[in-house]
Write a structure and sequence with these properties.
It is a single chain. The protein has 348 residues and is of the alpha/beta class. The chain contains 14 helices and 13 strands. The protein is 38% helix and 26% strand. Strands 9-8-10-11-7-12-13 form a 7-stranded mixed sheet, with helices on both faces. A 6-stranded antiparallel sheet has the order 3-2-1-6-5-4. A hairpin with a 2-residue loop joins strand 5 and strand 6 (90-97).
Amino acid sequence: MMTIDELVGMARADGGSDVHLICGLPPKYRVDGQLLDMCEEKLTKEDCVNAARELAGDTYSEMEDIGELDLAGTYAGNRCRVHIFKQQGVPSVALRLLREHIPKLETLGIPPAALSLTNLHKGIVLVTGETGSGKSTTLASMLDSINHTRRDHIVTLEDPVEYIYKPDLCAINQREVGKDTRSFSDGLRASLREDPNVILIGEMRDKDTIETAITAAETGHLVFGTLHTGSASDAVDRIVQVFPEGMQTQIRLQLSMCLEAVLTQQLLPKKGGGRVLACEMMIVTDAIRNLIRAGNTPQIANAIATSAALGGQTMDQALIKLLRSGVISKETAIHFAHNQDYIKKNAI
């Protein structure tokens, strides 16, 4: 079997985003969204155990006990996010290659209105999308933009720490869940006593974390967070539904006042190879605040569609722009659309 450094080096050279090690299969990597074999040799149980031991180091016994482990490290000069887990009693590895340098925000292909989110000083900004849609990169670029333009204190809560920031004008503390703090909710509560201006929450997973994030935003902090949802309206519903029914009216009211924007991302295959970012951009207007308060989230998509003057756009509007500019195919646009009929009617 190739070493971890060799696997990461090959993936980086070929533009791969992920490496998978599974007993009985050849090492695989994801290139332009497709999972491909890295060689013909199939991995044995011993190969997988050795790889897991090399990656986990002293924490291998922890993975053995609980069945999975998250960590980050640098291999072949490339920062990577690593997840080790047991399947059928044998370790498997999913390894995500991170960019060596945090890209400039304006190079990502996000909507122009999203560039101004780094000028906010309070409220909640959410970046949502499925796993592998580039959420971590977008948030890292936003925080790094703040780092180079403002004299603030940034606190991040991550599981694990992915991008490493080099403090410029800002003071930056990066805390890893499981190492530096017990949980997102504990770390977030503690962060309010750490004099932060900007807080990044790697994932808003539970009621306590979301409740504290709202409190942080209400008390004058700028909070960035992620959710695994496919649209802005789904993000609102996800947050509200975490709470018991008796609290949901109050949470809608609080969220309507502190939510500033939701950016929803998809990475799509480009014509001719590679991938391109498609984004839904919800700027929270007074009309959208009223919809959130009233629980009329199904109407949010229409409100976004009519907020183009402020920089808002739905995912389907983003797909039409990419289609008309020749970046993606009609088939791709239809496949990733929320409303396929809309794409078919407007694909001119």
